[in-house]
Specification:
- By secondary structure, the chain is of the alpha/beta class.
- The protein has a single domain, classed as TIM Barrel (Alpha-Beta Barrel).
- It has a six-stranded parallel sheet with strand order 1-12-11-10-9-8. A two-stranded parallel sheet has the order 2-5. A two-stranded antiparallel ribbon has the order 3-4.
- Strand 6 and strand 7 form a beta hairpin.
- Helix 3 packs across helix 6, helix 8 packs across helix 9 and helix 9 packs parallel to helix 10.
- The two termini are about 25 Å apart.
Amino acid sequence: MKNKIDEKERLFRRVFAGEEDYMPLIISPQLNCPEGVSYPSSMEFKEDTAKSIACAVGMLKPKVEINSDWIPMINISYYQNILVPSLIGAEIAFQDGSDPMAKRSSAEIKDVFKNGIPPLEGELVEEMIATLRTAKRCMPDDFRLSFPVCSSPFDIAQLMFGEEFLVSSVLEPEMVNEFLMNLTELSIKAFDLVKKEMGQDADEYITNRGLFFPGLRLPCDALVTFSPSLIRDIALPVLKRFGERYGNLCIHYCTSPAPSQHVLPVLLESDFAGAVDNWQGPGVFIGDDAPARMQDRIAIITDIDLSTEEKMRDFIGSKPVREISRKGGRGIVANTKSGSVDEGRRTYETWQKLIR
């Protein structure tokens, strides 16, 4: 099984390097959940890591059996929105059914780093390392671990400061830029620590989709709330710093309900935007009204209904897919759902016949 995972990692490297015409397909069937039992929450992964991993592996068995281009993985995202905020004074809010979040801060943005960038230490850091080490120890050989340790500095800033952050970005851009760059350096410390614990190089990352990305996946939902000029002025410098450290960036942002068509055209100005990733479908990236639908540089990772051969042919034959080369151009990775293992296998077999 390790050889299969290594082979899939090599495939994704080629896709994101523009060296592969094939479009990887991840197929997600119904989970194998016993009646009355749900997939472990992020809190459960933290509280009882070994038990939760064993439970999740069993539930993911149908997805493994389909043997699509998915890399079997367990994602533990508990610390994503709390670790770095906790280091700069944020209190944590716990809500049933969702990941913990940083609470709104009463501090002023300009004062957050008045004593410099804090060290990466403390009770929550120690807890995170312990959880990560337990997860590594308990992970089956045929599974990989996805362990996103923090969101983008923009997302953290909006969680902690809300409208004050956006207003200050316009009225005091130099102060906000300094704040974001300090937050970026602190985030890089966190990413580096996790990569070191996982034995990963700077340009290795298993995302929460179960694909390998040669760089770093960075959740950037806040980008959709920025104007194009604000993305250009305060976001691109931050992305540049992450890119200098990790290479290409897989930039995730939800493309609805907020308008988001303005984001990708500005990301094309970055040398480090290697892919965009959403859960809401390809329309905002390559739909008829998408302003950057024919761009040929930033790869697309998205969900799409490919449950029938007709839908596959329609997608493959659409102008942005048909006319923009993937080899030497823009890679595409798709995720689609299936009702069963057998249905998923048939879908994957049909995809191979049409694509290969």
